Amino acid sequence: MSSDGDNDDFLYEDEYDDEFDQDDIDSTSEPDVYDAMSPAMEEAPQKKPYDVSWKVKTLQEIIDMQNKEITKVQSLLEVPASSAAILLRHYVWNSEKLQEQFWNDPAQALEAAGLSPPSSPTTHTSTQPTGVFECPICCMEYDYPSTYSMGCDHRFCKDCWIEYLSGKIKGEGESAKIQCMESGCKRIVREEIIDDLVTHDISKRYHNLLNAAFVADSPTLRWCPHPNCEYIIECSQAPTRMLNQLVPTVQCKCGDDLCFGCGYSASHRPVLCRIVKLWEKKCADDSETANWLQANTKECSKCQSTIEKNGGCNHMTCKKCKWEFCWVCMGPWSEHGTSWYQCNRFDEKSGIDARDTQAKSRASLERYLHYFNRWANHEHSAKLDAEFYQKTEKKMEQMQNSGNLSWIEVQFAKQAVDAVIKARITLKWSYCMAFYLKRNNMTELFEDNQRDLERAVENLGYLLEQNISDTDSIAKLRQDITNQAAYVQKRHDILMDDTLRGYLEVSYSAGDW
Amino acid sequence: MSGLSTKRLMKELADIQSKGTPEGIILLSADNMDEWVFLISVLGDETIYKGETFALRMKFGNRYPIDVPEVSFIVTFLANGQYQPPMHPHVYSNGHICASILADNYQPWTVLNAVAICITMQSMLASNNKKERPEGNDRYVRSAPSNPKLTRWHYDDDVGIGIKFSCHNPAKWV
pTM of the full predicted structure? Predict the structure, then answer.
């Protein structure tokens, strides 16, 4: 999108760049770094080979980027700034291509972009004739100063221009490609003319649309998708062709994650963009079933009373009969406390058995629902984030009061909650991934990782739900939570590492779907 | 009704009254300044519409001619008799017409005007040799909005303003 000489200025100038190159070469011994994780390290996470560098830009910086290009083209081609802008937009901000075409045949390049050829008079307005003019659109008579014509000599009254331009901008959301009102005339209306004619509000909208088009046209820019956030992400390491191997999760200055590859408004690691698209479409098609509704409420596996999970971990205790069970597999919890944990995998063997006796479609629905339920389960938990934070904050206050701990000393709880939430988002997507994975040795490894993380998160979630009774138990709880949080973080990074590195090495392949 | 359309429509009307309309096109009524009805018939012996006359209604908004008028064939009783929309692959049985020149994202009409729309419709009929309704007519007519401009037409190609027509199936209507 810019000449080579310019790349340094706004594409790669960030400090990550050198790190990235180093990581690329030497990146084998990294996962263990997180063992000794400290809060300070979380501030500046180590970059992995599958991470991308990015910069968060303000709208003003985006405007500056455009102006810089415009100024450059303006002086190179010796055309007015607004012509340079129109030329650049026509050539999708590819200034090399623009220059090539322009020097090849200036008149043709200008014509193609919707500008008057250099020889034709562009200052017609200064030599206006006197007398009255009948506007061919509204048929009213005007004196010449109330009319306007571009270089193409199609003259209309300003009222009609205003009506036309306002309709194009407000009604149809057009910006860079608004043409002359004359039928068949391809002349593009310049910025300064639009600004001069339309109201302030519409002119503002016009410039917003121009900026939006600039970002949309640039493969290295993307708007932050979060509501009310006006930042723009710049990333040159995630071109479309790389999206089969990369999940370019980035973080905006507004604090939220997004995927640079597809614009998904959260991290969807470790799943590839196109798989997320498939999954979302599938969920939109299939989830309106009665089975989906069942995912929101469940019956106690002992007394059959209907239960809605409203937060917390998967260790459920029925209010009615006190039965303890697992929300995910509905089996007794007693089996989960030990090493045996069967909740994360869909038993392929029982799937085969099911196909023997039932219709094939039923089995595939069941398989889908298996993964979907687990995905939705984590989605649901993630939605209760705010509540989880609130509860933890209360607990942190309580600990400060009763345990004589300082503010800094209780931050471990918040960090633990962060770890749980982050891991839940990853777990959520891991079920989508598992649904589409072709079964092989790598799948086994993936599911092992998934199970380990699932269990670590459950344990940590359980610890965070514990009540605080006295000072001694706080000390112990603090130790347990800190350890468990570090473990969750480690399991999380292992799962990410294995999968995302796997994409780069192409060891994961998709199943037939 | 006010706005930039008033004077323009008066001028178009005055032009029709002084210069007349092309053969096969009659201005039936313009009692309301913002709603005109034309009668259209196809000339010559070659046409499949020989002996038939169709009534074309145009409703002008006050942004005309920056906005296109709402154009459709009449399907009701008028004082002079009953009119039916022509059997044509771009005309639905409720009178709605699928034609790119009637879509809103176009340049204002400095060359086109009410009579020019009639001429375009006349040639659209003249060039047709199959008396049939568009694909999906029944489905469209069941759920179409009363104002055809609210239909989001999907055009097969972008012929733009001119005699040629492009169509087809209404992709989606709001």
Answer: 0.69
